[in-house]
Amino acid sequence: MSQADAAQILKTHALRRSLTERREVDLSPKSSMLMIKPVGAACNLRCHYCYYLPVMGIYDGNAQRMREETLEATLAGYLPESNKTVTLSWQGGEPTLAGLDWFKRMIELVDKHRRPDQRVVHCLQTNGTLLDDEWCAFLRQHEFLIGISLDGLASDHNHYRVTTDGSGSYAQVMRGLELLRKHGVEHNILMVLNNKNVVHPKEVWRELMRIEARWVQFIPAVEWLSPDDAERVNRHDGDWHAAPADLGDWKGWHTASFSPTPEQYGRFLCEVFDLWFEKHRYEVSVRFFDSVLNTLVMGRASECIYSHSCAGQVTIEHDGTVFGCDHYVQPEWRLGHVHGGAARTVPLTINSSVPEQERESAPIGGRWMSGLDRARATEFADRKLDLGEPCASCDWFQLCHGGCPKHRPARGELPGPTVLCDGYRTFYPHAMPRLQWIANFLKQGQMPPEQVPAELLPSTKKTAPRKQRKKRK
How many domains does the chain have? Predict the structure, then answer.
């Protein structure tokens, strides 16, 4: 047996251990970030690819603003025992529908329950259409980091991100973006990659540079249709019809027609990476590239979808129900409730708000995280390990860990890696020499020089067309 063969066998065994290693989930405040949904799935837009709008169906098609006692119970049971620096993520739906007064009260409650030496960082993900000067002054005063959803070019954005009457929302979003700039509010751009914008990466990147984006996150719109998901198709006026069968058929499940193909996704990442590396690597942060660098430098990804398991964050719905991830807000994955007690067992509907007597009996400041269902949380986290042999022998497994379960066949109900696997397998070998070059400097606490070794530069030479010889007369 050659040394290369032996090394491959050892590597395969190590990956298999990584695939099967089960770890009990730590649900303590020090190890879990909070994503809070002030109004649940309620939103003033009707984006065709929205993954969270179906949550409205769980709550009988209604939505409520989070009650103050639920908000306070959440903060009081988390902040005192959490880390010195804490990040609270406020998402939706559209969280600004809760109203500015609700957020002002939230700041008061945070100040009431945080430790004197504790710093709380607020992140707010919004479509930006409801922002005004008063909102932006508040966000600036309390140093919020804003994630604003923008799908690139106006024509691409307006195709899927529409208002309740079907109109495009690009102009409203850009108005909100200008207000954030006017007030000096830090913000990043969240771009959902779909079958429209993924096909022209260069134009998308030029648009991002035109609006002076400095933090960018690309989110592939991978959504699934089950064999009998006709209701979901009808709800979105046809945009949820199944993609052609040649893009994948997993026991009757299909990706939605707006989902990018693996080839499109890989090509997009490669072309954007080339543009970023050539001109913008010192001034623009792309979350996916940062996550790969974090793995190379620190040994762990900075994004959950590329991590070993689905753990480290909990989602709190507007009624106080706790889940392991906002992509799996489903009754079977409920972990508990911030008011504790029997509230964890009541039916998950709009009527599942904790009864008045239970709210009174659950003292503010109770350690609700200690009462969460750890066995269910561990079961949920371990779903990420349900992979097959291809992952055990893949050179890139330690970078992707099979991807997000939601991106796997049938939303993770069938074993196997992300359906975007071929896209990652296109990107990693294309970008890795340059990412590793950057990582080598970062490990030494240095920034890489502007001068890049020639062998790392992509070839730009093209074979010149041959001149046609003149025919002799």
Answer: 1
Task: Determine, yes or no, domain membership for 437.
Answer: no
For residues 436 and 432, give the distance between their C-alpha atoms in angstroms, rounded to a whole number.
Answer: 6
Confirm whether 457 is domain-assigned: no
Residue type for position 280: H
Active site residue 326: yes
Distance CA 86, CA 320 (A): 19
Q: Which of 229, 319, 326, 382 is catalytic?
A: 326
Three-state DSSP class for residue 396: coil
Cβ(309)–Cβ(23) under 8 Å? yes
The DSSP secondary structure of 104-147, one letter per residue, reads: HHHHHHHHHHS-TT-EEEEEEEE-STT--HHHHHHHHHTT-EEE
**If we measure between CA atoms, which residue out of 338, 290, 295 comes closest to residue 314?**
338
Residue 259: name the closest of 269, 247, 276, 272 by CA.
Answer: 247
Cross-strand pairs, 163: 45
Q: pLDDT by residue (tens digit) across 433-457?
A: 999 999 999 999 999 999 999 999 8
Range of the domain at 43: 10-21+29-425
Q: How far apart are CA 125 and CA 307, in angstroms?
A: 22
Phi, psi of 38 (to 5 degrees): -60, -30
pLDDT of residue 124: 99
* Domain presence at residue 454: no
Residue type, 177: L
Q: C-alpha angle 209/213/214, rounded to 5°?
A: 115
Query: Is 443 part of any domain?
Result: no
Pairing, β 215-220 against β 285-286: parallel
The predicted pLDDT at position 241 comes to 54
Residue-by-residue DSSP string for 278-310: IIITTT-EEHHHHHHHHHHHHSS-SSGGGSSSS
Tens digits of per-residue pLDDT, 245-264?
445 566 777 888 899 999 99
Could you tell me which residues come within 8 angstroms of residue 9 by beta carbon, excluding any fewer than 6 positions away? Answer: none
The CATH number for 175's domain is 3.20.20.70
Q: What is the pLDDT of residues 415-426, one digit of tens each?
A: 778 899 999 999
pTM: 0.86
